[in-house]
Design a protein that fits this description.
With 238 residues, the chain is of the alpha/beta class. The chain contains 8 helices and 11 strands.
């Protein structure tokens, strides 16, 4: 699985320059992916597929997780926000890279399962809360990195507000599932924001406030803002 991920990333002209890839793959090597899946799905744990974890949610393809976590550039002393805990697999990877991982899951049953699983497997630097990820986790902010594992038509303002100067936010943004781009938001030391894209991918939708309030009206980074967004690494793909 890890060899395939490295080959996929190195073959993408738009992702040359992922400085943290070796650290991220090293963290993934320490984690048994099958332990984060329902028993019926474990036979497929290392295939390049999103896998069903119940409640209409999926565990993303490990390649996508490696891409997003690498782009977040999580430092060893980082405080990280993981939005969309799911099974807890991405939080487990982040725990090997950062000092603290705060993980938010909107589905209470999944949050409880992930919390129990991570505790049973010995992860001590991850906290999981059942809450709407649109609002982030203000009490644990600011964050050096924020990774969102659900698609939205806009980047939630609360997440931008909770991102530390010098930090990075990575999440899928798009009008529909088929139009989502994985966007990297970088906040400068002075608070200025710039963005780039890692390319098109499809995710489950962000729910809760983001869904019911109308994302285009409440997000600070609209779809119009993403037209012509530059690639994060390498040369533009034509």
């Amino acid at each position: 699985m890890l060899r395939r991920i490295r080959e996929q990333l190195q073959s993408r002209r738009s992702t040359f320059g992922l400085r943290d890839l070796d650290r991220v793959l090293g963290a993934m090597r320490q984690i048994d992916r099958e332990k984060f899946l329902p028993r019926a799905q474990r036979v497929d744990a290392y295939l390049p597929l999103p896998l069903d974890i119940g409640f209409c949610q999926t565990l993303s393809d490990a390649y996508i997780i490696a891409l997003m976590v690498s782009a977040a550039e999580v430092g060893p002393n980082a405080n990280v926000l993981d939005v969309g805990t799911g099974s807890g697999y991405q939080a487990a990877i982040l725990s090997r890279l950062a000092t603290h991982v705060q993980s938010v899951e909107i589905i209470p049953q999944l949050a409880a399962q992930a919390r129990d699983r991570l505790k049973r497997l010995g992860y001590r630097n991850i906290d999981v809360v059942a809450a709407d990820g649109y609002a982030g986790w203000p009490a644990r902010a600011p964050f050096d990195a924020i990774i969102v594992a659900a698609g939205s038509t806009a980047i939630p303002q609360p997440l931008l507000d909770q991102l530390k100067p010098g930090g990075r936010l990575v999440m899928p943004v798009g009008r529909t599932k088929l139009e989502e781009q994985v966007v990297v938001v970088m906040k400068s030391a002075m608070g200025a924001v710039r963005r780039c894209t890692l390319g098109l991918e499809a995710f489950v939708p962000m729910t809760g406030y983001a869904q019911t309030a109308g994302q285009q009206n409440v997000g600070s980074q609209s779809l119009d803002d993403l037209r012509g967004i530059p690639r994060c690494y390498g040369v533009p793909v034509t």
